[in-house]
Amino acid sequence: MRVTRFALVAVFLAWAPIVSAQTVDEVIEKSITAMGGRAAMEKIKTRSMTGTLALATPAGDIAGTVEVQNAAPNKMRTVIKADLSAFGAGQLLVDQRFDGTTGFMINSMQGDQPITGNQLENMKANSFPHPFLDYKAKGVKVTLTGKEKVGDRDAFVVVFEPSTGSPIRQFIDAESFLPVRSMVKITTPQTGELEQTADSSDFRDVDGVKVPFSVKLTNAMQGVTMTFTKVENNVALDDKLFSKP
Q1: Phi, psi (5° rounding) for residue 20?
Q2: Count of C-beta atoms within a 10 Å radius of residue 51
Q3: Average pLDDT over residues 129-141
Q4: Whole-angstrom Cα distance, residue 29 to residue 172?
Q5: 3-state DSSP assignment of residue 163
Q6: Where are the alpha helices (DSSP H) in 37-144?
Q7: Ramachandran class of 50: left when φ > 0, alpha when ψ lies in -120 to 50, beta otherwise
Q8: Cβ(96)–Cβ(241) below 8 Å
Q9: What are the b/e assignments for 171-194, b being 16+ CB within 10 Å?
Q10: DSSP assignments along 115-134, one per residue
Q11: Residue 193, helix vs strand vs coil
Q12: What is the pTM of this model?
């Protein structure tokens, strides 16, 4: 009887880590639930966000404004404005647009130009309101690679590998299951290849869905912190907003 009991305990202990382990699909579904649930998220067809930004430079932060607009399935527009007159450069305007197929950037400092190559492919691979919702339908390969620290908190690391564009490392908080960080390599003619990190925080409820009101973007060249003050879902957005003017 003692041998039998020991054998049962050994079997239980051997299986315990497997039973408690979470699959990548389970982690992603828990994250969807934490953000408000699939049904609530799929009701969102457009979003408009406005706020302020701080552009980090060796001479100090430069203040500005930011507007972000999205429309399903993957249209996006980001407008950044800042006053660079203290640096002898006048007004900065960056207006980046993607209509689902083509991208275009208006840039007061570097000139207007189409978005091409890897940057365009990354935009095509994205989806709104969140890429977690349709990664299976789009044939994206996902892998759970373990846990890493984001600040002082543990986070699951999920790697998304779309058919086009760069792989994305998504960090999902191990307690709240909110997506708190993403890392992706971006290649542009001006900068070459850079790894961009986006840290999301200050999640607030907007129409039953959690939205980060603070996003910090960092790479080897610069850092930008966007603090949103107004977020609206399902607002009327003209398709012209996402196309080349």
Answers
A1: -80, -20
A2: 17
A3: 95
A4: 11
A5: coil
A6: 38-42, 117-125
A7: beta
A8: no
A9: bbbeebbbbbbbbbbbeeeeeeee
A10: E-HHHHHHHHH--SS-TTTT
A11: strand
A12: 0.88
Q: Where are the alpha helices (DSSP H) in 49-143?
A: 117-125
As a whole number, mean pLDDT of residues 61-71 equals: 95
DSSP code for 82: E
Higher local confidence (pLDDT), 5 or 59: 59
**How far apart are the C-alpha atoms of 23 and 33, rounded to whole Å?**
15
* Residue 80 structure tokens: 């950044």
Which fold, 23-242?
Answer: outer membrane lipoprotein receptor (LolB), chain A (2.50.20)
Q: Can you read off the two tokens belonging to residue 48?
A: 């408009």
Residues 242, 240: Cα–Cα separation, whole Å: 5
Q: Report the first-to-last Cα separation within the chain, whole angstroms.
A: 81
pLDDT in tens, 217-231: 998 888 999 999 999
Residue type, 113: Q
Query: Which residue type occupies 129?
Result: P
Total residue count of the chain as it appears in this document? 245
**Dihedral over alpha carbons 206, 207, 211, 213 (to 10 degrees):** -10
State how far Cα 227 lies from the chain centre: 15
Angstrom distances, CA of residue 113 to CA of 17, 126, 244: 53, 21, 10
**Closest by alpha carbon to 228, among 74, 76, 78, 65?**
65
* Residue 219 CB-density burial (10 A; 0-12 exposed, 13-18 middle, 19+ buried): middle
175, 218, 222 from 225: Cα distances, Å: 25, 9, 10
Q: How far apart are CA 168 and CA 25, in angstroms?
A: 16
